[in-house]
Amino acid sequence: xxxxxxxxxxxxxxxxxxxxxxxxxxxxxxxxxxxxxxxxxxxxxxxxxxxxxxxxxxxxxxxxxxxxxxxxxxxxxxxxxxxxxxxxxxxxxxxxxxxxxxxxxxxxxxxxxxxxxxxxxxxxxxxxxxxxxxxxxxxxxxxxxxxxxxxxxxxxxxxxxxxx
Length: 164
Known about the structure:
By secondary structure, the protein is α+β, with helices and mostly antiparallel strands. It has two domains: 1-43, no CATH class; 44-163, ATP-grasp fold, B domain (D-amino Acid Aminotransferase, Chain A, domain 1, 2-Layer Sandwich), CATH 3.30.470.20. The chain contains six helices and nine strands. It has helices at residues 9-16, 20-29, 109-122, 132-140, 142-146, 153-163; strands spanning 45-52, 54-55, 61-62, 65-66, 69-71, 79-82, 90-91, 98-106, 124-126. The strands form four sheets. A three-stranded antiparallel sheet has the order 1-8-6. β2 and β3 form a beta hairpin. It is globular.
C-alpha cells in the first residue's frame, strides 16, 4: 500500500465527494469507518490546472515577485482553488513558484472544461508573470477539448499556446 497522498487528490475528491486527506487522518487515528469499493462512486469529470509565477515564453522560467493583485472567484461545489497566497505576498525564488491549484468539476468533460475556462478567466494577478494565458490557451485548444492529448501536446502546439 502506498500511504502517500497524491498531489492531484483534489480531482479525486471532486469526482467522489470523499475527502481523502481527512480519511487518511481518520485511518491513522483508527476512527475511519468501514469503506468498501462500492462506497466509492465517481461522478462526472474533474481537472486541475496549476497557476505558476513563471514565464511560458521563456521556457517556463520562474518569475518571482510581489503579488500586487490576486483575485479569485468564489469557490463552489464545482470550483476549488487551493492557495496559500493573497495580494501583497511575495512569490519567492527560493521555493516552487506555484500560486494556486484550480480544480473544476462538471457532469461531463466538456462542462468541466468550460467551468475551468470560466474560472481561469476570472483569476486576476498583477505582479509576476504567470502562466494563466498559457493555461487558458491549452484548456481551450480544440485538440484538448476533443480529448486528443498526448505527452507531446505542449511541444506540438507551443507556438499557438504561447501566442494567446
